[in-house]
Amino acid sequence: MAVLIQVRDAHKRFGDQVLLDAAEVSLVDDVKVGFIGRNGAGKSTFLRAIMGTEELETGEVIHHPTLRIGYLRQHDPFQDGESAMDFLIRDSQQPDWRCGEVAGQFEIKGAYLDGPVKALSGGWQTRVKLAALLLHDPNFLMLDEPTNFLDLRTQILLEHFLRDFNKAALIVSHDRAFLKATCSQTLELSRGKLTMYPGKIDSFLEYRDERREHDRRVNATVIAKQKQLQKFIDKNRANASTASQARSKAKQLERLQTTEIQVDEPTVHIRAPRVDAKNGTAMRCEGLAIGYPGHRVADNIQLEIEHGQRAAIVGDNGQGKTTLLRTLVYSLDPLEGTMKWGHNIELGTYAQHVYTSLDERQTVLEHLEYVSDSDTTRQDVLAMAGALLFRDEHINKKVKVLSGGERARLCMAGLLLGTANVLILDEPGNHLDVETVEALADALQHYKGTVVFTSHDRHFMGQVATNVIEVRDGSVKNYHGDYDTYLLSVEEQINEGERERSGKGGGPPQAAKSSAGKSSKASATDYRQTQRDQRKIEKEIKNLEKKIASLDDEKKAINAKLLTETDAKEAVRLHEEVTSITEKLSEIEERWMELNSEE
């Protein structure tokens, strides 16, 4: 087991904030590690230090000579007008057949592969970037919040990719379900220290809570003993006959020390709006069509949401979840039919278009006091601000200087301090860390109003949702089952697709199935022969791929020499070599395509 990356005695500050304080960790070549910590703890800084794009104040990062880092880029690396295939070839310098093969692992094909990559949704662009990452043949992946804005199917595809990737990875995510499915160990950054736990995130969080509770109990016992000893010392040190006992007790008191309980911040607690419970139908749609002028997203929607439900809107990216939510909050007019909320409904909305329109002249505190209900105290406001990471001097920051993530958290804090009895939430967990997402889920579970929401965080969805509404193929309807059932159905659809692509569809190919009247023995013989033929084809394909890669490398090397060659005879010879290799490549690639069409 080789150590690919070793961090020793790393120190890093940002202003007065300590991000790394004598931090140390070793990352080995066959372990996938989930990397967690509060927002602002320094996780992204640590990743940049590993990449070499951020300098440490002191300490060192040691790379193994064989280390090849694959980093999932958050920025847009695409050029105007290029297709996904164009980008993959440009970025990886791999031949088109290889790019197409890897793209197929992420179901990138047809218009998604050959159309403009910038026209794709964020989730599909992430698939393209993952394919590009794999084409560079890394042995250590670094993924920073890879599930942000990915729909459920893309998340599961990413999980399957990581499951089959038999090398190392360091994954930053607030999505507990994703980390649990992909990582066998957990790394926490807390108060500048790195702690590696040899287990999955759920076990780590349980262990950490138990450790802290144990330390609290021990501290309480120590403090009680300290008080007892101090009382004896104060009473007896002035008495000659008991002074020696008092000195002995004083030495005991010096040895008694409490344990510092490691917590990044005060425990997060979020409260939902305080409203009265209602019964009956909260919202009804009849013959509703949603979309935009010239583009109908879904129609003939017959839907009811009851008071007190927490309805999860599910579906792939691009199917219309956000369009439905925008229609429900009157941000979009229905194209047809009716949509009506019940009597005395007050809608509270959390979405992109809301937190980009805050009053930039106000401070954080002024905004929260302005939007909170009349019964809210200053302490309530400060507590909510703190829970959403606005503490100390941050509550006096002007809205105009806040980042996009800070504005999103401010909008969430204001919404939760208000009086809305229906909450419409579009991706409420984005920009929040693991503990805050957990606290928000707990608050929504105790909320007496109605919630309609979307989220890509499966753990959050499973905790909060009481029912599921699916947007798919131009229709919107109640899904008959809970969120876990929906999750299983999507997983099975993806598994079936992967079995079909790999030629393992759960039985012999159609050509090998016995026709009616043939014996089961003949059918089994046919099937075994088909399987042997299939293995031969797969072996030949692998050998051809090795030859193609070798010839491709040889061709690149000769072309590089041609660019600098000044001797005419040598240039002619090199050109003839390139021509010969090109002809060989053409023949081998043609055979490779024939075999793939036979699989």
Automatic annotation (TrEMBL):
UniProt entry keywords in alphabetical sequence: ATP-binding, Nucleotide-binding
Stretch list, region Disordered: 495-536
Bias type Low complexity, positions: 511-524
SMART domains assigned to the protein according to its UniProt record, in alphabetical order: AAA
A GO molecular function held by the record: DNA binding
Coiled coil: none
Domain of life: Bacteria
Keyword Iron listed: no
Signal recorded as keyword: no
ABC transporter domain segment(s): 5-216, 283-498
PROSITE patterns given in the database record: ABC_TRANSPORTER_1, ABC_TRANSPORTER_2
Pfam families linked to this entry: ABC_tran (PF00005), ABC_tran_CTD (PF16326), ABC_tran_Xtn (PF12848)
Protein name: Putative ABC transporter ATP-binding protein YheS
Organism: Stieleria marina
